[in-house]
Amino acid sequence: GRKSMQDNTLTVSFRADPGPWDGWQKDWEIAAELVGRMTLEEKLSLVSSPMASMPDAPEEAIGSAGCTVGIEHLGIPTWDESDASLGVTNPNDVRHDDVTTAFPSTVALGATFSPELARLQGETVGAQSRAKGFTVQLAGGVNLVREPRGGRVFEYISEDVLLSGVVAGSAVAGIQSQGVASTLKHFALNPQETGRVMVSSDLSEKNLRESDLLAFQIALEHGQPRTIMPGYNMVNKKYASENAFLLSEVLKGDWEFKGFVMSDWGATHSTEHAAWAGLDRQSGRQLDTAHYFGEPLKEAVAAGRVSTARLDEMVTRILAVLSSVGGLDERRRPTSFPAEEHAEIAERIAEQSIVLLKNDGSALPITSATGRVVIVGGHADAGVLAGGGSTTVTPPGWVHDGGVAIAQLPLPRAYHPPAPLDEIRRRLPDSEVVFLDGEVTEVVGQIHADDHVVVFAENWATEGRDLPDLQLEGRQDDLISAVAGAAESTVVVLETSGPVLMPWIDEVDAILAAWYGGSGGGAAIAAVLSGAATPSGRLPLSFPRSEDQLPRVEMTDPGLTTSNPGEPRRGSYLSIDYDIEGADIGYRWFERQGEEALFPFGFGLSYTTFEYTDIVIATAGGGDPSVELTVTNRGDRQGIDTPQVYMAPPRVSDSSSTYRLAGWARVDLDPGESRRVRIRLDEMRICASFDPDDPGWTVHEGDYSIRLARNAADRPVLEQKVRLNGTRLRP
Ligand code: GLC
Asked: 452 CA distance to ligand 1 centroid (A)?
């Protein structure tokens, strides 16, 4: 969203200026001129890349997910690609002693509801990537969270189209502002990991356009990513990396995408079929069953099965992207970067991502406590948990405790220092703070009746495998219940990928959702626990009461299928029917089913209170509606509030008419301070319907219900019907 101030009214709008990146024509001209001087071999050398975190990496590689050797006589330098959204990774410790910053998970970024913080995280990740000599940062995970047990939920943003698209787009724009091309991934409909190389995500085109594709489209318009990465999965029975509907009809056709499409690592399955479908580059080719865009492509071009024009277009797109971020200027070499400043930014974002879910009797903040403060479990004496997979950042001092291996790469279960225990001691210098860990009875036996206990609960999710359920691992539920039965007050800090079940919810006094907070996580948790910071996060995902509420209750058994590239194929192809919920994901599914979540989308408490007054829901003569209100901080401490607007379209034949997030504002207020805000509901595609037989968006004429609320399930502060004119928008 874009913010502007008029007559001291904070106005937030959500529509971006669609279209390809500014100045793409010039970059294409530069690229086409270079292609005109290339031999066939030279063209082929650019349309595939090897992983560069293995012993057989090109010797000029910096060391990362990918390296492409340049073409000296054409002034095309060697360039390198790195993972990912949460910071610059160092796979296999390929760059020994590498200093890097672990940023909060992108679902934590989603919990800030802040396009500004998303842009800032992108700028900082991009600056670090550029300083290390990279040209492409494989970031921009934006898949809608249809499956809360998905292995990469922490790498995505939300169950909501608008929040996902705006946050992902802002982060990508931030990365690219530093002269590093970003990706958007994994295009499309890749909400699960188990069986990911064998699964077909099935969804009607109408539902696909109105949900997952719209999130990508909004992110594309807000961020203008230079590259797109299809996922490992199939979409409606066709592999995403050779899916002509996705890559040619939608992405390069309807959306006029001018960058290049790179496969995921080991996700290429053919030569001419993929080339004609719209794939421009084979990545991580050691993980594929063949070097499809190598010799086979040379033969296909020689035999005319792939035209020279198509090969030239592939190379033009790649070089235009490099040109657009200054990647043709010189061989990039590692330089220094302000690690301290980056660490502070990571901490600030982590702090604003923490969601206060419960705070009975003001158990929080813990000030100078009467009894001891006892920190229990969750590796709180080591650091905060990080998600597993290609996105795991390994900053100095990181530790690991187990992990998995996928695609021949070890994926550690990593913890990011500083330890929450140390940060809590720093924030509560006058309190006795002790750490307990171990078996339930052992821990509980040491709890005093007047102790203030903070239990750290963790759930490790990783790429390549979904979570089996939403329960906390091991016996953490028992530990929390037992501790709650013994202590004066019990606070639970959740370090999780996304939602978890909470059988102990009525036994504890307070709950914080702290996600995977990254290098700033420990300090952020301590700041909120001690009251140095007021919690301001809002849930980007519904927390269910039970897995029985989900569209698909059973999870696929990872033992019956193959989940990762480079592994022997097991079992047969799978189909997952996402038409069960269709475009009604998360809170929209709960509304449609008449179910109540444990904690709804958009939920979050504060240490202060906010009042909404002078609310006006208006439409400019039947055009874009807006909601104006005055937000006042009625408490005794600073806080950030996020008033939300949900809108339901009129009932139209086969389209859903559930309420969906149409806009929001974030307001940072000191005690007693007021701010007038205007929330423009100008991204009307979230309330429009897409008819595949008549491609384009139809905003139907009729009555739209608009709610101002504090979360998706909240009794609205105000609800009103407005009549809107019908309009038609391009696909
Ligand atoms: C991984 C991931 C992708 C990542 C790539 C490079 O398997 O699916 O997100 O960017 O390969 O590591």
From this structure: 42
